[in-house]
Amino acid sequence: MDRRTLLKGSVAAAGLAALPSVPAQAQSAPDKLRFGYAITQSGPLGPGAESTVVSQYKLWHKRVNDAGGITLKKFNKKVPVDMIGYDDQGKPDELIKLTQRLIEQDKVDMLLSPYATHMNLASASLSTKTGYPVIYTTATTTKSYNLSKTHKNAFWQIVQPVEATTPLADYLARLKKEGKIKGTVGVVHPTVEYGVEMHEAFVNAAKKAGLNVVVTKTYPFGASDLQPVVREVMGANPDAFVCMSYPPDTFMLTEQAKIVGFNPQFMYVAIGGVFPSYQSKFGKNAEGILTYGGQDESVPGYAEYDKAHRAMFNRPSEAGAVSVYAALESTQQAIESVGSIDRPKIRDALASMTFKTLWGEYKYVDQRCSSPWAVGQWQNGKMVGVAPADKKGAKPIVFPKPKWS
Amino acid sequence: MVLFEVFINGIILGGMYGLIALGLNLQYGVARILNLSYGEFFVGGAFIAFFAIMLWQVNPLLSLFVSMPLAFALSWLIYQVLMVPLIRRAPDQDALDADVVLVTFGLFFVFQGLALVYWSGDLRGYSFLSSPIHVLGATVAMNRLLAFVGACVIAVVLFLVLRYTRFGAALRAITIDPVAAGLVGIDVRKYSALAFATGGALAAAAGMLVSTFVSFSATTGVGYTLKALIVVIMAGVGRVTGTLAAGLLLGVVESLGGYLIDPALTIAINFALFMLILLLRPTGLFTRA
Description:
A: 41% helix; elongated; B: globular
């Protein structure tokens, strides 16, 4: 670029900036509100993104339009929603390119979250730069604790490692105090970032709570046989067996604990434990197993949601998907309270309002969901939320876990 | 005692590795087709077993009567329709390998895409024979033992067929030199198609047996193709009984290494063994020099 074009460019830019903005009153209501997302639809993460996230975008899109759209009180009108989605192929650079395309070419009004922690983090930088508030629905990382100050437009929906693991440690400490257990814990995790961070957070919480972590084992993601790992934990005979696991090893650890007859009084598996397929595989043996996430099916509106979900996808929803749907409800409620697409105001509404959703009632404190479901448990064949214990709809934890049958 | 159990479980795990590789070695060793969509046949067998038990409450073993003939027929068709034209026009084996890899890679995408559309990407699993059994004092899962027994039965049957039947002699001749086999009157195309189809059926059988203890989804096939390929290359292309032996070696080394050093290293140990064999015996453990 030579000096002359540079000069021209800056003159043009200055000219643009000097143009008076169109007065708001002159605007008429938009015909459509455009929501855009770039998400992984091909590659290994594609199926998870589809069943947990994209399915909810489709379902919410249909339900909100069936109801006439989003109410913009400034125009006293309901405006239907348009959805634009792209496949980022699981590549962060592709995600960034497509997100820019959504903003610059498709001129979307709002952006929705991509899938998986590292993609959420990549998108958070861009949404902050471009002024789009986004609720990130599939990121669990200790990094999120430091992002609120620098990433003003990023909101974090699901439970983060410290809040996910502290209730486990606190509950075990209470059992120890009541003399029901000795307070020994065995922890295993795969060598992926999620497993490592959850493990660290849990071990810190356990130490603070006065528990004794007697054995820790790691294994590679996708291992074919975890019986030796289970054996080593069993050998230390801990009261609690805590697996910071990922599917498919969530399934394998459960099955192999049963095979070798390892009957801990307290058992936790992380990702995948809430899946309906977990319950259908293990049936009665899933009873009493604790897991990451959770939900409360008795919240108002859940029955209608469940019915619409089954009609659209021919299967029940799962707790992770409900949290994504709730993020869409929060976004809609924030837009409706502002009454127009004014993104800085929508951002402030998200940061200050209280939301009533299918995932319960919450605010975003420091941009993090104030009471996401942290721990769930299979009770009588249903996934119920057990922590945070003070969240509305939380059930008491069933202890001890029944023996394998 | 635990060490002995780890050893026994290593053998069982190795049987599974051998099981998933047997079919691929027939396809690659005899028919000379490196089938990158092999894992999709494996996943197909797993899904048919899953539907048998979950939808129709049928013993998943019976699903083999459906999945194996289906996989056999589909593989036979793929060979006759897609592979034969490639074989005809290829000037040599290297050129053929390149074409075959591209076409079967394409098939992999087609099959996986169809599976995703019709069966969704959800993780599937079911419980079948998931109870312990004691073998010489070691605790073993019955479903894993079943897969091990399945691997042994398939390997022994293949061995007997290859060694003692006219059909087997023809396959062995093709393995050694397809051109010479044709010159002595063996119908290379017909026998290669049968070997390729049998390989597909064995993939479906392996998928059924493994699905009793490993959960799977429409996208897990490619992982099994890679695992099977490692075992085939370790054993030596075309060495059928060697495939089982190589699988067993891999399983035992993985289990013992994981137990004695660190379970986090099991995959690293696997590949270290693989590299060692490639360095010392580049044509495979059981290939005659």
